[in-house]
Inverse folding.
């Protein structure tokens, strides 16, 4: 595939592309690759530990970053010094004593130009909550447009939604205050943990002393330990909501990119089950607002869960009690598969595979703390490559109290350095006492049905496949490969932008937050190779194949395939107007998890 320096570039043959682990694109669409863009050392130093899938964010860095963000927001003065209460409510309770400006005219003189289109909150009862801050202020019923307020004419106009539905899972301020002051009542969770630990210790002692005690004495011990918790746990298990995972399309919890607007996009394309981004138990228990924001739910998410990460029975059980007390979810998923070093060093994530008794204790106690809400967990085949262990505890998890189990067909050591082992997933399913959800490398609709029919899983969790091509949900439901056009793909991005403004806000901060998360998502979408460009004699594209440099069937398709982040910014400009002066973007996550010819990944994408 290479040529001598200075010699004319020659397109590689299909055979050469296939042999090198590259998507086989027809030669007429191939172009000479551009030099790779320079990486920012600070941004990418830990790229392998900043992967987005299933709670793959770093623990230490994640926690510190979240706390720093909270402090930064607290220290940062409000936009242009304008009173927030005045803009939202039309008046300020503090009047002249308010420390923020009430000079709306001065604010309007320095405010950036309005964006084209109509405010996303135009149909919201009570009007736009951002008032004059809104970047579409000129379209407000009571607002007055300004001359020259609209930016570039080439920018796409975003249509406002017919209705704006309020998001769910906002927590009362009183709860947050009690959490920060450590005054929340966790007595129920603490009692459950103590009784579960005592019951497990008794069971261990009985096994050790087997044959030494009389049957009557053992029965007496059993009766003594069948306390209120035993009856309580049984009653609560019977009360739990039953979630039918069978054949349901499940969008994985995705760190950073699995935000609420993205989940809404996936729901419109056919996703059945959605799950929020991974949240740390310790941060939730501390009342960190940025962590609680990860638990928001949209009305369209009819089967919705949240994923938490923790490794100790007390904190996980307290967190489960807290979540059921305060928010509306159908299930809580515990991440016991995250391979990140900083997570495993804390005893969380994949490290639980090395401590099966602790895994059992956490699941038993957490399940007992939940009433109507179901408990699930996600894990991997094993911690190391030496031996696989998931099949050894799969028969027991129903007794522990889990409603379902998700298995990622790789070990913690493998991360993404091999193809997911679906034969082992099948072996585990044969011994599983609960519904088993398979995870790993589902990229085409035929992959999904192969795993259901040949590997016997109840359903599949879609992660990277859904990030790269969210219409995968549609392909699966319609059992067809969709040669989607660039305009149809752009409409999906357009939906995300509209949902983003509704979620993060239509003021400057909201617009730029929407841009940021759109760009993070596009660091995955550029990897898609249109079906119509493929040399089908070599089969369909695979998750582990690297896309070559190519031109699309139109300029927009070519732009969408660019790996240059500057081109992603161009697309964001088409949707959200020009970014602030001096804006530059570096993706948070490393998405190049391709298999090399030797089977090793060319990049890491860590996930649970």
């Amino acid at each position: 595939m290479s040529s001598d320096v200075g010699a004319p570039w020659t397109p590689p043959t299909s055979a050469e592309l296939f042999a090198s682990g590259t998507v086989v694109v027809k030669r007429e669409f191939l172009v000479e690759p551009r030099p790779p863009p320079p990486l920012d050392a600070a941004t990418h130093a830990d790229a392998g530990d900043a992967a987005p899938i299933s709670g793959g964010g770093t623990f230490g860095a994640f926690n510190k970053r979240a706390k720093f963000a909270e402090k930064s927001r607290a220290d940062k003065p409000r936009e242009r010094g304008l009173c927030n209460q005045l803009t939202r409510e039309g008046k300020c309770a503090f009047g002249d004593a308010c420390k923020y400006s009430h000079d709306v005219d001065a604010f309007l003189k320095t405010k950036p130009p309005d964006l084209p289109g109509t405010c996303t909150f135009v149909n919201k009862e009570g009007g736009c909550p951002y008032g004059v801050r809104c970047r579409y202020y000129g379209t407000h019923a009571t607002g007055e447009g300004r001359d020259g307020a609209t930016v570039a004419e080439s920018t796409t106009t975003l249509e406002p939604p017919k209705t704006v539905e309020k998001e769910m899972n906002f927590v009362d301020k009183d709860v947050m205050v009690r959490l920060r002051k450590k005054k929340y009542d966790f007595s129920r969770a603490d009692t459950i943990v103590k009784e579960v630990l005592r019951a497990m210790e008794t069971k261990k002692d009985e096994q050790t002393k087997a044959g030494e005690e009389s049957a009557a004495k053992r029965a007496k011990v059993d009766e003594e330990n069948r306390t209120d918790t035993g009856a309580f746990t049984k009653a609560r298990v019977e009360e739990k909501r039953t979630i039918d995972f069978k054949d349901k399309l499940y969008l994985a919890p995705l760190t950073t990119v699995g935000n609420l607007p993205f989940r809404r996009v996936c729901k419109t394309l056919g996703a059945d089950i959605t799950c929020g981004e991974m949240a740390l138990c310790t941060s939730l228990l501390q009342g960190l607002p940025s962590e609680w924001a990860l638990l928001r739910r949209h009305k369209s998410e009819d089967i919705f869960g949240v994923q938490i990460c923790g490794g100790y029975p007390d904190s996980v059980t307290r967190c489960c009690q807290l979540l059921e007390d305060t928010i509306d979810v159908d299930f809580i998923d515990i991440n016991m598969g995250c391979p990140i070093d900083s997570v495993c060093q804390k005893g969380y994530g994949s490290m639980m595979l090395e401590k099966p008794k602790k895994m059992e204790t956490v699941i038993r106690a957490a399940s007992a703390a939940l009433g109507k809400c179901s408990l699930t967990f996600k894990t991997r085949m094993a911690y190391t490559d030496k031996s696989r262990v998931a099949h050894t505890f799969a028969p027991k998890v129903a007794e522990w109290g889990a409603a379902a189990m998700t298995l990622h067909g790789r070990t913690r050591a493998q991360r993404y350095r091999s193809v997911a082992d679906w034969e082992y997933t099948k072996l585990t399913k044969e011994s599983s006492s609960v519904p088993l959800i398979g995870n790993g490398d589902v990229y085409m609709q035929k992959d999904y049905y192969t795993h259901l029919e040949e590997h016997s899983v109840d359903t599949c969790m879609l992660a990277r496949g859904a990030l790269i091509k969210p219409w995968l949900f549609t392909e699966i439901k319609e059992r067809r490969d969709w040669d989607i056009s660039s305009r149809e793909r752009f409409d999906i991005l357009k939906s995300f932008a509209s949902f983003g403004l509704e979620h993060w806000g239509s003021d400057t901060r909201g617009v730029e937050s929407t841009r940021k998360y759109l760009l993070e998502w596009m660091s995955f979408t550029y990897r898609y190779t249109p079906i119509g460009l493929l040399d089908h004699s070599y089969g369909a594209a695979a998750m582990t194949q690297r896309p070559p440099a190519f031109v699309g069937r139109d300029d927009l398709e070519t732009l969408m395939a660019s790996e240059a982040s500057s081109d992603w910014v161009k697309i964001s400009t088409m949707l959200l107007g020009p970014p602030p002066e001096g804006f530059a973007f570096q993706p948070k996550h490393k998405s190049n998890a391709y298999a090399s010819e030797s089977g090793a990944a060319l990049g890491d994408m860590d996930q649970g």
Q: What stands out?
A: The chain has a mean pLDDT of 84. The longest strand covers residues 303-309.
